[in-house]
Amino acid sequence: MQGLTKRQEQTLDFIRRSIEERGYPPTLREIGEYMGIRSTNGVNDHLRALERKGYLRREDMKSRALKLVEKFVEDAAPPAAKVSDEDLVEVRVLGRVAAGLPLYAEENVVDTIRVDRMLVRGGRDVFGLRVSGDSMIEAGILSGDYIFVKRQATAERGDIVVALIGDEATVKYYFPERDYVRFQPANAQMAPILVRATDFKATMLLGKVVGVYRRL
Amino acid sequence: MQGLTKRQEQTLDFIRRSIEERGYPPTLREIGEYMGIRSTNGVNDHLRALERKGYLRREDMKSRALKLVEKFVEDAAPPAAKVSDEDLVEVRVLGRVAAGLPLYAEENVVDTIRVDRMLVRGGRDVFGLRVSGDSMIEAGILSGDYIFVKRQATAERGDIVVALIGDEATVKYYFPERDYVRFQPANAQMAPILVRATDFKATMLLGKVVGVYRRL
DNA sequence: TTGACGTCTTAACACCCGTTCAGTATCCTC
DNA sequence: GAGGATACTGAACGGGTGTTAAGACGTCAA
After folding, report:
1. Is the CB of residue A216 less than 8 Å from the CB of residue A158?
2. Are residue B75 and residue B174 in the same domain, yes or no?
3. How far is A183 from chain B (nearest CA, A)?
4. A124 with A193, same domain?
5. Are B26 and B66 in contact, with CB atoms under 8 Å apart?
6. Which of A71, A207, B65, B96 could form a disulfide bond with A149, CB atoms 3.0-4.6 angstroms apart?
């Protein structure tokens, strides 16, 4: 009678992991989300079973009041690899690309996010933008993605850059040619933008894209 | 500067004891009752102070989501002045997808990176993987990208998931059909992988992809 | 004196969360 | 075939809970 079913064991495992990794037990709905159970009652059934079989204790009407019965607690000391704060970079998200924006305005900071330096190599002079449009879809940059841009006025041929073209910031491949600069979309249905070399000023280049992030 | 006041220390002690003795952290009102504070906001002030000084971590809008910062559980070394960590999530990068890997092996942690919670909504149960291959190229996931995976044993139709198929972890779209589960690549040149429903076990689903990162 | 900080109150709000009820379906055993 | 676990869905209810606003009081340093 003490045997657990597969689902019950999964439930118990999840609770155990939650306590170990987060420091506090999950709610019914958190368990349900992990297990793919839409109903809190479905989860409750599992908890009642675990309680009845002696693997778990609960207190009525309290959130997260789950306690594993001692003999089933695994005491595995997690290493908790510590990372120093010096590995962090603060990135200011300035706005949307291809949206006609005053990029340098301090007030325009939409958000500030922090990521590991490992992810945005290129030092401290990096800012973030939100992408609008499908012009770089074949380079794996979709509408809605965040891009991390290292501020620099020059770029290598073939880099993905953010450029200010006619008061609008856009993301494109950068191809300097003999008489003009070609800003090439990564989308077969879109034409490149050509800027005459004489019209091209370095200040048009806002920076080089060093990272892409997409939330799903 | 970083020292605790008498009340703050009492608060911290109570939280510590609550976790040790009951197995889960207290609510604001439980703390208030013990401390003789009638107002949840009074308690909140203490918690904010403890958080700011680095003794405690909290998650927004969650009940009992208190966690003692580990190094203060035992020794009382003063905390290094740090920017508030409350918005950060630690993600363990476990290895490469499509590379035949023992995913759960503790030794397999390739790296630990920290990103803002904003970027990986889905809580703490998220791990990272490095992508190999072009099977999801049309979904904007390229070879070499990092993906962030929320651990869960089920998924919705159309989700991008990480699944264990024949000892290999792969990233695919998830389409459950009547008699089988279809794992669909986002690449017109690749065929879907079909798994008979009778062969399909929930443990094959490692999680759902909640984020993509690419370093350029 | 002013200002920053710690401490706490009252109040209101909105979401979180466990509980319960009413079903459906499958599998197993007697 | 009846009965009993197991494993859910869906919905509703009500109290639990974190959050925020606005303010009061005292201490301590500038």
Report:
1. no
2. no
3. 18
4. yes
5. yes
6. A207
pLDDT in the model for residue A160: 92
Say if residue A27 is in the same domain as residue A66: yes
Chains A, B: CB contacts within 8 A come to: 138
Nearest CA in chain B to A16: B23
Domain boundary among A62, A81, A100: A81
Q: Are A51 and A151 contained in the same domain?
A: no
B19-22 long-range contacts, Cβ below 8 Å, gap at least 24?
B19/A23, B19/A24, B19/B66, B19/B68, B22/A65, B22/A67
Determine the pLDDT at residue B99: 37
Nearest nt (C1') from B65 Cα: D18
Digit-coded pLDDT (tens) for B165-188: 766 788 888 887 777 888 889 999
How many distinct helices (H) and strands (E) make up chain B? 4, 11
Closest nt to B40 (CA→C1')? D18
Residue-wise pLDDT for A37-67, tens only, equals 888 898 988 888 888 887 888 877 677 877 7
- Answer yes or no: is A93 within a domain: yes
Distance B23 CA to C15 C1' (A): 25
Q: What is the pTM (predicted TM-score) of this model?
A: 0.62
